[in-house]
Amino acid sequence: MSTGSPGSPGLFALVLLADGRFPTGGHAHSGGFEAAAAAGRVHDVPTLEAFLRGRAATAGFTSAAFTAATCAALARGTTDECDGLDAELDARTPAPALRAASRALGRQLLRAARAVRPDAALDALAAAWPHGPHQPIALGASARAFGLEPRTAAVAALHEAVTGPATAAVRLLGLDPFAVHAVLARIGPVLEELADAAAGSARTPPRDLPALSAPMLDISAEDHATWEVRLFAS
């Protein structure tokens, strides 16, 4: 189902899935921003933009590729490939804290999606992973249940990859929300290109999907998990 027409059901489904008010628990996660801000690596609008561009091109792109691949796999009518996709994504997530956060978000996303759009594939994933599949697997499955195509699913993943940290920047640093959203608008063309690339790899074997690394995000996540006081879960 294409999102090209302004009145298409797919467009509304994308807006619903990408809406920060959709009850997935994402509002409690900063995507690594809280640790980056505490370390002084992000402290103003220019450094925020650099952080978002870097996150989108690494963790965000990998997430988008797995989201698109899951959507494409379920379009073929089977959930069997999801096991391999989840295992490959687990291997690409070396930090235990990030693996735990991803599965917690995946579990909550499946719960929300199943409540909004009952679907046999979503039920099967929830039964297979009672503690949650990785979030991109859940997002790809939810996108398929909502009638979206792999590229649109990738757009939703990239949207989440940058808007979560951007929202955290307003809350943690008190940055001007207008300036922050101007940053999001500026990086929009880059996200479109990444979505194209993610969708282009959606039908490749799971082992060949992107495995771009962001070591500082992994290291910061483990440090952040030890904090006694923190505003965000990750």
Explained architecture:
By secondary structure, this protein is mainly alpha-helical. 67% of the residues lie in helices and 0% in strands. It is built from 11 helices and no strands. α5 packs antiparallel against α6 and α8 (150-173) runs antiparallel to α9.
What labels would you give this structure?
234 residues; mainly alpha; 11 helices; disordered N terminus
What layout of secondary structure does this protein have?
Elements: H1 9-18, H2 33-38, H3 45-75, H4 81-91, H5 96-116, H6 120-128, H7 135-145, H8 150-173, H9 177-186, H10 188-200, H11 215-224
Helix pairs in contact: 1-8, 3-4, 3-7, 3-8, 3-9, 3-10, 5-6, 5-7, 7-8, 8-9, 8-10
- How many beta-strand segments? 0
Count of DSSP H/I helices: 11
> Could you give a short account of the major beta sheet?
none
Instruction: List the uncertain runs.
Output: 1-9
SSE string, helices as H and strands as E? HHHHHHHHHHH
Q: Helicity level, as a percent range?
A: 55-70%
Using the alpha-carbon principal axes, give the shape.
globular
Secondary-structure content class: mainly alpha
Radius of gyration: 17 Å
Strand content of the residues, in percent? Answer: under 5%
Distance between the termini: 34 Å
Mean pLDDT: 92
